[in-house]
């Protein structure tokens, strides 16, 4: 999982350079849910699995709070791993290409 954390830090730095304010990254479901208790993001990027399991509970919490989210995954159908809450969520793929990531995030915020 260490490489996943490094990728998350790279994404954080990329987004910050582009003017985004970033919460996290969170490596566990527990950490992600704690972040949401402190502050709600305009949009979230979710990986399908975290250290302690599927991101399902985080996606459900985001949806309940009406926070849009996108999925960063190599899975063609992330809902098969993370549950129905991920069905239809925009995907930025994995590896994530910068231009696509920014476009999908901006679209999610506007929706």
Automatic annotation (TrEMBL):
Residues 1-109 form the Response regulatory domain. InterPro entries: CheY-like_superfamily, Sig_transdc_resp-reg_receiver. It comes from the Bacteria. Keywords: Plasmid. The keyword Kinase does not apply. The keyword Transferase does not apply. GO terms for biological process: phosphorelay signal transduction system. This is Response regulator receiver protein. It comes from Sinorhizobium americanum.
């Amino acid at each position: 999982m260490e490489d996943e954390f490094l990728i998350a830090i790279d994404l954080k730095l990329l987004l910050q350079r582009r003017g985004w304010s970033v919460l996290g990254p969170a490596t566990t479901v527990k950490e992600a849910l704690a972040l949401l208790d402190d502050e709600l993001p305009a949009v979230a990027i979710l990986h399908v699995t975290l250290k302690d399991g599927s991101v399902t509970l985080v996606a459900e919490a985001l949806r309940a709070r009406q926070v849009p989210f996108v999925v960063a995954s190599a899975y063609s159908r992330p809902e098969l791993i993370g549950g129905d809450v991920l069905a239809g969520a925009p995907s930025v793929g994995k590896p994530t290409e910068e231009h696509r990531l920014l476009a999908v995030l901006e679209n999610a915020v506007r929706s």
